[in-house]
Amino acid sequence: MKYLPWERFAGDRCNGCGTCVEVCPTGAVELVGGKPVFRIDPCIGCGHCGAFCPVNSFNLEPLPGIPSNADEAYTALLAARRTARSFAGRVPGKEELHELLSVLEESPTGRNSQGITVRVLVGAEASRRLFSPIRKTLRLLRPTGLPAILGKLTNTAPYVSRMMRGEDLVFRNAPVVMFFMVSRNNVTWRSDGIIAAATVMYKAEAMGLGTFWNGVAEKLYPFFPSWHSRATRGFGPAAVLCAGYPAARPRWKVPPRDYRVIFEVRR
C-alpha cells in the first residue's frame, strides 16, 4: 500500500516553514497560504515531507538511536537514511571524500575486477556548471513549446518552469557530484556501478553526509558533452550520486514500505 502523507497530516501542528516543499523530490507539495498543499499524481510515497518536518505534522514515530549491536545498527542506519536535497554551505574536504570512497575496495563487481572509476566534482561551482547546459537547452526550446509539453506529459510543469527561471532542480547545488563510470566491456557494468554507489551512499550516512540518487543526470548524460571527460571515454554512467552535509536531518520514522517475498522450493 502506498504511503499517503496527506492522510497523516495534522494542519494544526504545521508552522508553515516550507521544509516539506524543499525536500519533496517530485514537486508534489506546494505552500499555499502558509500551509502545504499535496498534489496526488506526482507523489511517489517516499515520506520525506514527514520525515524532515521539524514539528512532526505527519504524526510519525521518532527515529531510534544507533545501537552498538552491528545488526541493529545496520537496521537503524537503513531506517534513518533519507534523501538529502538541500545542503549546508560546508564542502567536504579531500580527506573526507577519500574516506567515503574507500569502501569501494569492498564493493562487489563482476569477476571481482573492480573496474569502477568515480569522477568526483567538488564545489558549488561544479554543480552550477553541470546545470547550466540544461537551463540553456530549456530556454532555447521554449519557443517550440516542447518544455511545456514535457512538463505536462510528465506532470512536472512547475519543476520545468522553475528550472527555466534558473533554479537547479537537477543537481540541487550539491557540493559533491559523483559519476560512477564503468567500462561497458564488462557484461555486469551497470549493476556493478549501482552496487558501488549504494555502498558509498550508506558510508556517507554513517559519516554524517547526505546523498541523493540523480537518475535524471544519469539519463541526460549522453546529451551533454560538456559533462564528459576524456579520462572516462568508453565508460558508461551506471549511477550519479550527489552528496554533501545536509541542511536538515530527518527526525521521524517513515512508515515501512510494503513488499512481497515469493519462495519457490524445487525438489
Question: How are the SSEs ordered, and which strands pair?
Answer:
Blueprint: H1 19-23, E1 29-32, E2 35-38, H2 48-51, E3 61-62, H3 70-80, H4 94-101, E4 116-122, H5 124-141, H6 146-153, H7 157-164, E5 176-183, H8 189-206, E6 210-213, H9 215-220, E7 235-244, E8 252-253
Antiparallel strand pairs: 1-2, 3-8, 4-5, 5-7, 6-7
Helix pairs in contact: 6-7
Structure description:
There is one protein chain. The protein is α+β, with helices and mostly antiparallel strands and 267 residues long. It is 32% helix and 15% strand. It has helices spanning 19-23, 48-51, 70-80, 94-101, 124-141, 146-153, 157-164, 189-206, 215-220, and strands spanning 29-32, 35-38, 61-62, 116-122, 176-183, 210-213, 235-244, 252-253. A 4-stranded antiparallel sheet has the order 4-5-7-6. A two-stranded antiparallel ribbon has the order 1-2. A two-stranded antiparallel ribbon has the order 3-8. β1 (29-32) and β2 form a beta hairpin.
